[in-house]
Each structure stands twice: as C-alpha cells, then as structure tokens.
Design goal:
The radius of gyration is 29 Å and the shape is rod-shaped. It has a two-stranded antiparallel ribbon. A two-stranded antiparallel sheet has the order 3-4. It has a domain of 75 residues: Pantoate--beta-alanine Ligase, Chain: A,domain 2 (2-Layer Sandwich), CATH 3.30.1300. It is mainly alpha-helical and 128 residues long. The chain contains three helices and four strands. The N and C termini lie far apart (64 Å). Helix content is 48%, strand content 11%. The protein binds zinc ion. Zinc ion binds next to helix 3.
Length: 128
C-alpha cells in the first residue's frame, strides 16, 4: 500500500537557495570551531605524554649507567653537563632521546640529589 500525501509541495526550482547554502556553511564552521581546538589540544597532550615517557626512560638508563660506573659521570659529560646522547655510545640507550615537540633535553640535579631530565619545551617554556 502506498502512502499518499494529502498536500502537494510546490514545485521547486533545481539547486539550493542562498539561505540553504548559508545554513550549511554556518553548520560546517560551527563543527570546525569545535573540532579543531579539541584536535590541537589532544595532540599537545599526546606529545607531552610521549615526552614524559622519554624523559623517564632516559632517567632510568642514566641511573643504571651511574650505578654501573660507581656514580662517575665524567665519561658522559661535556662542558660540565651530562649529555644523554653519550648513553647511546655507552650502550645504555638505543637512540638519543628526542622530544616530539622538538624540545631539547638537559640533565640537572633535582632537590633530592638525583639526576632529572628536563625538556626545554615542556618543562621550562610552557606554563600549562
Ligand atoms: Zn618535551
């Protein structure tokens, strides 16, 4: 059985009216306005998480190196600073640790006397 309409719609011209196009453009811009900031925030959070993991791994390997070398870091130092890429030469890291946001890692001593890896992008510059 076919449903029949009791009223017939007026015959329309082909294509869209200006108001229909404007509504579509408005809705698309609304979706973009919501989606783009969420996307950027989530990639920032992901990069920070990767950076934190990389730092923790580098700290753990540095600690191992120092235990193996009786806390003597002179072999992996350059200009008075520990250089993490030298842990690669020593076989403690597969590759030099890198921040996904292109921050530079520096090793410093924390308040508890242990070595801590800091990222120039995530630990020093950023305020969030
Ligand atoms: Zn970083």
């Amino acid at each position: 059985m076919r449903a029949t309409s009791t009223w017939t719609s007026p015959r329309r011209e082909e294509g869209f009216t200006l108001i229909e196009i404007l509504i579509v453009i408005f809705l698309l811009s609304l979706i973009l306005a919501v989606a783009v900031p969420n996307y950027t925030k989530s990639t920032e959070r992901a990069e920070k998480a990767i950076c934190d993991n990389t730092k923790k791994g580098a700290e753990a390997q540095l600690e191992l190196y120092l235990i193996d070398h009786k806390q003597d870091a002179t072999k992996i130092m350059e200009n008075g600073e520990i250089v993490l890429s030298k842990l690669v030469d020593e076989g403690y890291l597969k590759e030099a640790p890198q921040c996904p946001s292109n921050g530079k890692y520096r090793v410093g001593k924390g308040s508890d006397g242990t070595y801590q890896v800091k990222c120039s992008f995530h630990d020093e510059v950023s305020t969030h």
